[in-house]
Amino acid sequence: MPGPVGFIGAGRVGTALASLLHARGVEVAGVSGRTMQDSRRMASGAHLGSRTARSRVDTLRASTIVFLTVPDDAIADLCREIAEEGGWREGQGVVHCSGALSSETLLPASDRGALTASFHPLQAFASLDAALANLPGSTFALEGDKALTSQLDTFVQLLGGTALHLRAEDKILYHAAAAIASNYTVTLAALAADLLVREGVASDANTALHYLMPLLRGTIENLGDVGLPGALTGPIARGDTGTVARHLEALDIFSPDMAHLYRHLARLTLPLAIEKGGLDADTARQLEELLD
Question: Which CA distances in Å does 282 have to 134, 204, 289?
């Protein structure tokens, strides 16, 4: 079992990882926030003993693998500050949890003989409870020194997850894919809810979202069950040019910005509909002309 491990940064990701790994038999040597009060709050949130709340120096000394679970913009400065204080040692594992940054951000640690890696849970963390519930079974993107990522593989297995091994140059487009799949799904749901509110169908955005949630859940389930392009439904998939035309006519009047977005998304959807087999060449051409 790799470890003992330490966590520097008292946010949701670090607290959830500390809690879940501890529950699966990994020794958590210490957790550290900005202040001892933050450290104690993190230890409590992770269901760890009070002695686990330590100063940063003590966490570094007690841990063979250290997770820097701080915001992306703080990782490089924190790593450099610890290096200048002599906190890193040869053979120690240093890990950050950023999806967009590679392990190269941890160069001050590797310069002092430490092994470095990135360990990114491909998951959304709206709250600590959500992180604790959703992290097990997730995909985890691993990148960095092989000797360290092989140990991180063990953590992924303990969490019942899937390890996705990346190169440093893969990280930014990988993270863009994650943002599109997760963040912009929320944006699209908000835009759809806004249409219902502005038309008077729903009293507010969250009421509208309540109406839409069964559809969203069904779509996610279809993606899991039949994949791409099989999960695609709706007027583009059916080649229903009349419905698409009426959508655009209404949106052009109601919200030109929404109409522009609809056209762009519909154009991107056409290849999926063609691949699914629901469109013949003539219908696809009619839709292209309509969307132009």
Answer: 45, 41, 11
Q: Please tell me the distance from the alpha carbon of residue 63 to that of residue 145, in angstroms, as a whole number.
A: 18
- Specify whether the backbone of 122 is left (phi greater than 0), alpha (psi in -120 to 50) or beta: beta
At 292 the pLDDT is 87
Place of tokens 């000394």: 61
**Contact between residue 30 and residue 9 where contact means Cβ atoms under 8 Å apart:** no
The total number of residues shown for the chain amounts to: 292
Instruction: Find all residues with CB under 8 Å of 204, minimum gap 6, and list them.
Output: 197
CB-based contact 289:244 (threshold 8 Å): no
At 28, list the tokens: 């958590």
Rounded distance between C-alpha atoms, residue 65 and residue 2, angstroms: 8
Residue 292 to residue 281: CA distance in whole angstroms: 17
Give me 21's structure tokens: 């790994």
The pTM is what?
A: 0.90
Query: Please, where are the H alpha helices in the chain?
Result: 12-23, 36-45, 56-62, 72-84, 107-110, 128-134, 146-158, 171-181, 183-198, 205-226, 235-238, 241-254, 256-276, 281-291
Between 183-198 and 171-181, two packed helices, what is the crossing angle to 10 degrees?
Answer: 30
Predicted confidence at residue 278, as pLDDT, reads 79
Provide the 3-class DSSP secondary structure of residue 28: strand
Integer Cα distance of 292 and 290 in angstroms: 5
Cβ atoms 81, 57 nearer than 8 A = no
Can you list the residues of the chain whose pLDDT is less than 50? none
Pairing assessment for the beta strands 5-8 and 65-68 based on DSSP bridges: parallel
| Residue 285 φ then ψ, to 5° | -65, -40
